[in-house]
Amino acid sequence: MKGTWRLKLRLWFAMLVMFGLVYFILMLAGSLLGFGGSISFYFVMGIVVLFIQYLAGPKIVEKSMGVHYLSEGEAPEIHKIVEELASEAGIPKPKVGMSNTMVPNAFAYGRSKRSGHVCVTRGILGLLDREELKAVLGHEISHIKHNDMAITTIVSAIPLVCYYLSFSLMFSGGSRDDNGAGILIGLGAMIAYFLSQLIVLFISRVREYYADAGSVELGCKPEKLASALYKLVYGAAKIPQDEIKDIEGSKAFFLTDVSKAGSQITELSQLDLNHDGVISAEELQRLKDNDIRVGRGGSLMELLSTHPDMLKRIKRLADNS
Question: How far is the C-alpha of 106 from the C-alpha of 43, rounded, in Å?
Answer without folding.
Answer: 34
